[in-house]
Amino acid sequence: MPPELTEHQHGEITLFGLWKFLRMSFGLWNAARLLMENRVQDLSFVFVYIDDILIAMCPTGKYNGTGDAFINNRPNCEAECHCKSLPCLYSNGRCRDGCVTGWSGRSCYRREGDIDECEGTRGMDYDQDCHECVNTIGRYTCRCDQHYELDSETNRQCIVL
What we know:
Elements: E1 9-14, E2 17-23, H1 31-37, E3 46-48, E4 53-57, E5 62-63, E6 70-71, E7 74-75, E8 79-80, E9 103-104, E10 110-111, E11 132-136, E12 139-143, E13 148-150, E14 158-160
Antiparallel strand pairs: 1-2, 2-4, 3-4, 5-8, 6-7, 9-10, 11-12, 13-14
């Protein structure tokens, strides 16, 4: 077992780092103590079985992205956060201890000085023909619905195929 895991944790080392699973066999008796020791503060994805408790945790700097909580039996940790030292909450990316220098926003996902056009109003802050606004540093781009494609000249409008 890798040294980063305690006797109650299981993990899998992947291309993206260590996925931790806190497994407490017959653990309802010791669950409260182990939850406190491991500082699990986001209970959104705690799965309790008759003889097991499974807690999904992402590597530091990642949290649950959009879509399913698990992809291929692994926690969905596609979104990034930039918290000071504590991991961000698995379910929404919130930072309990604030953002590292240079980052801001609810999940510390935005570089300071960057304006998130996507938080604004469609047709005013970003293009009316943008189906899904995606903020990038200093600008934005769009994702388009089926049967549309991104205008290669602007990267900000969806046009019919």
